[in-house]
From TrEMBL:
Name of protein: Ornithine cyclodeaminase
InterPro entries with a match to the protein in the record: NAD(P)-bd_dom_sf (IPR036291), ODC_Mu_crystall (IPR003462), ODC_N (IPR023401)
SUPFAM superfamilies: NAD(P)-binding Rossmann-fold domains
The family this protein is said to belong to: Belongs to the ornithine cyclodeaminase/mu-crystallin family.
One Gene Ontology biological process: carboxylic acid metabolic process
Length: 329
């Protein structure tokens, strides 16, 4: 069995490769060539924590995987990671468990790549300014993905604590030393949104981050932070103004996306207004952006088969390049 840690994965696998693989995986999903059972959560009431078990299978790739993620909030006080995850990859030709790898960086990569695919199909080709609302754990993957598909000239950062935005700004400068664009920090999310061609929502907020009336004509929004029915990053005005609302999967969105479920349940907006899944656009069943003036919204709560897709891609590349550490159970 092969073991791959975070450093190895980052050296092996680029965001550009991940976007290509995630786009292919969405096509498989739309073609009913994947299986993703509902994730199981095991609560640990003693610590107000939980462990999530997320299996998935991609038939054309001949791999299945299970991602196990533990979320222990009290770890933060002890200097330990709050979120810890691993992926076990299995070859479905033989049933052999072939690899175990770090899940945290792969999750950031595939979540970012999902937004990258959506941006490719839904954002204006001449998008130059991106507003990032929330500079937390998923933010770096989101910016990397948008940078991979759009020729950005300016990034605007908003975060609840300005110190985190300042630290993230330094991180971006070190990651893209040759990039000639500019990065600014904005304390008012409405101002940030009003200047942006692409808006990224990457927080765990339970209340909308901005007033949708401030969105530019022709803007595209990637809303990826909220993943539970009570969480909201975008308001009903954003939904009403959006000409196309595209989701990663209808099933997941209608169960978990508070951005859509809260206004639907309050009778302010209907989920019937959802345009379709990103897989339909990738496979040519529906059009992506059609007019420069359209406002488009991509809502993602995550789907397990993306983990299997990127884990199998990393494994195959590691084998071809002789990377990773072999061990026997």
């Amino acid at each position: 069995m092969l073991m791959l840690n975070e450093e190895m994965i980052k050296e092996l696998y680029s965001m550009k490769e991940c976007i290509e693989d995630v786009e292919k995986a969405f096509g498989y999903g739309y073609g009913n060539k994947t299986q993703t059972p509902i994730r199981m959560s095991v609560p640990h009431e003693k610590f107000k924590a939980e462990t999530l078990y997320m299996p998935s299978y991609i038939e054309p790739e001949n791999y299945t995987a299970i991602k196990v993620v533990s979320i222990f909030p009290h770890n933060a006080k002890e200097g330990r990671p709050v979120l810890q995850g691993v992926i076990l990859l299995t070859d479905t030709n033989t049933g052999e468990h072939v690899a175990v790898m770090n899940a945290s960086c792969l999750t950031v990569l595939r979540t970012g790549a999902s937004s990258g695919v959506a941006t490719k199909y839904l954002a204006r080709k001449d998008s130059k300014t991106c507003a990032l609302l929330g500079c937390g754990a998923q933010a770096i993957g989101q910016i990397q993905a948008v940078m991979a598909v759009a020729d950005l000239e300016h990034i605007i950062l908003f975060n609840r604590t300005i110190e985190r935005a300042q630290a993230f700004k330094k991180e971006l400068h070190s990651l893209y030393p040759a990039w000639s664009g500019t990065i600014s920090i904005q304390a008012d999310p409405n101002i940030a949104v009003s200047k942006a061609d692409i808006v990224i929502c990457s927080t765990k907020s339970s209340t909308p981050l901005f007033d949708g009336s401030f969105l530019k004509e022709g803007a595209h929004i990637n809303a990826i932070g909220s993943y539970q029915p009570h969480m909201q990053e975008v308001d009903v005005q954003t939904l009403i103004r959006s000409n196309k609302i595209v989701v990663d999967t209808m099933e997941g969105t209608l169960h978990e996306a508070g951005d859509l479920l809260v206004p639907h349940n309050e009778g302010l907006w209907s989920t019937d207004s959802i345009y379709g899944e990103i897989g339909e656009i990738i496979c040519g069943e529906k059009a992506g952006r059609e007019e420069p003036s359209e406002i488009t919204l991509y809502k993602s709560v995550g789907i397990g088969y993306l983990d299997t897709m990127v884990a199998s891609a990393v494994y195959k590349k590691a084998i071809s390049e002789g990377r990773g550490e072999n061990f026997t159970l």
